[in-house]
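COMPLEX REQUEST
Ligand: 2-acetamido-2-deoxy-beta-D-glucopyranose
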Amino acid sequence: MDTLNNRSSVSEFILLGLSSSREIQILFFAIFFLVYVAIVVGNLLIVISVIFDNHLHSSMYFLLANLSFFDLCLSSVATPKVIADFLRKRKTISMRGCMTQMFFMHFFGGGEMSLLIAMAIDRYVAICKPLHYQTIMNHRVLIVLLLVSWTTGLIHTTSQMVFTIGLPFCGPNVVDSIFCDLPLVIKLACTETYILELLVIADSGLLSLVCFILLLTSYIIMLVTIWQHSSSASSKAVSTLSAHITVVTLFFGPAIFIYAFPFNSYSVDKFLSIFYSVITPLLNPIIYTLRNQEMKAAIKRLSSQHILSWFLKFCL
Ligand SMILES: *[C@@H]1O[C@H](CO)[C@@H](O)[C@H](O)[C@H]1NC(C)=O
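STATUS: Structure written out below.
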C-alpha cells in the first residue's frame, strides 16, 4: 500500500451521498438505521431458527440460513458507515477503506450469487428428481456447494481487485455514491483503464447476466414440471419457487444494470447501489418468512422456547 501511495497523490475519497440537504440526510439516517436493524434482526432470526429447530434441518433451510448469513455480511460491509455518513458534512473514506469495501462487497456478492445457484440446484433436484432428493442432496454435497460459494466469491473479487488496488489516483477524488463502487472508483484513476473496465463488465456484469438467465430458465422448467404433475404439494412448491424467483430478480437486476452497462449513467448507479446495501438483504427474510408456513411456525416455536426473547433482549 505504501509504494502505491507514493505514486498516487490521492489518499482519500470523498463520497457525495444521496442528498446535500441536511433535513433529507437526517431522514435518510433514520430510514437506513431502522432498515439496518431490521436486516440484522430478520436475518439472525432465520439463522437461529434453522440452527435450533429440528424441523428445519433440511438442505433447503440450511441453504436459506446461509443466504441470510451472506445477506448479513453483505449489508454490513458498507451500511454502518453509510448511516454514520448521513450525519457528517464531509463524507470521506480512506484509500484502504475504499478498497476494503469493494473487496468485501464483491466477495459476499459473488458468494451470494453462487449460493442462489446452489439453492436453485436444490429445488431442481427436489422437484425434478423427488425420489432421489435425499440421496443426492446429502450433507456432504451441501458442504461442497457452500465451499464452492465461498471460493467463487473469493476468486470473483480477487480477479478484479488485484488490478484495482494498483491503480494510480491523482486527481478528482469525488465518488458520487454512498460507498465505493467498482465502476465509479475505476473511472477516477489517472491511467488508461479500458482493459480493467472490460474485465469488470465481463467478471461482474456478463457473469450476473448469464447466471440470471440460467436461473430463470431453470425456475421456469421447474414451474412447468410442477404444473404437469399437479399434486397436493404443488401450491406450496409454487409459492417457494416464486419466492426464489423474486429474490433472484432483486439480486441480479441491479447487478446487471450497474455492471453490464457501466460507465454510462452513474446517477442511476447510485440509487441501484442502495439495493445491495439495504433492500435485498431486507427483502430476503421478509419474502422467505412471510410466505413460508414452516418458517413462521419455527419462529413461533422459538419464541415459546424463550430463545427469541433472549435474542431480542440481546439485540435491542
Ligand atoms: C450453512 O449450511 C451448513 C450446511 O449444512 C449448516 O451446517 C450451517 O449451520 C449453515 N450456516 C448458517 C450460518 O446457517
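REMARKS: The first strand starts at residue 12 and ends at 15. The pocket of 2-acetamido-2-deoxy-beta-D-glucopyranose is lined by residues 47, 50-51, 62, 65-66, 69, 139, 142-143, 146 (CB under 6 Å).
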